[in-house]
Fold this sequence. Notes:
There is one protein chain. The protein has 7 helices and 2 strands. It has helices spanning 2-19, 23-62, 79-118, 126-131, 136-144, 151-185, 191-220; strands spanning 69-71, 74-76. The chain has a two-stranded antiparallel ribbon with strand order 1-2. Strand 1 and strand 2 form a beta hairpin. Helix 2 runs antiparallel to helix 3. The chain is elongated. The two termini are 14 Å apart.
Amino acid sequence: xxxxxxxxxxRISLKLSNDLKTFEQKEKFLxxxxxxxxxxxxxxxxxxxxxxxxxxxxxLILQTKxxxxxxxxxxxxxxxxxFLIIPSIFTFVYYKYLMIWYDFAEQKNVYKVLTSLLxxxxxxxxxxxxxxxxxxxxxVSKYHSQKxxxxxxxxxxxxxxxxxxxxIIFPFGYEVYxxxxxxxxxxxxxxxxxxxxxxxxTIFVLTILMLVKVIDKGIKGEN
Length: 223
């Protein structure tokens, strides 16, 4: 796996060296890349909040604790419509979240390779690591992947492992839960209702396919 990762970094380095001939071009590219990464970080934050709101709203509707939802200038008073729409919104937002997250992960890798080229640093060097934008997942992963870990490090690793699995698995489980609720709570299957069941189901399948492709590319060391 390490050799595959090095191969990917080498490919990125070769592309940067071939396509960005001068130091000024690399510097300008780095500046634009930083802006794009900041935009993606903001998008991820907004989409995460949207996922939480969708989840809370759906549960409140099931408990009949909300009767209307404001969507900008529009107000939806029919809780049945809200109930039918939320699964489609949740699955689409999560699909978009994963696409941006993958793009952001690729950007971080390119950023790290580019700074190593600009400042003539080793890819995994201490100074190059300090140039990389902060990411809690990267920091946790790097801290707990150290070759020598004390008791505190091992304890932290075993605490973060289930948390990470929950964060990854929970949205998929919740999507299945939303689709199941739609199927079991709908009595008369009108065209509109069938459509609003088909949309989240289709997006759920597309999400799985996208993740399989990403994992496959990661295993093969492609970029």
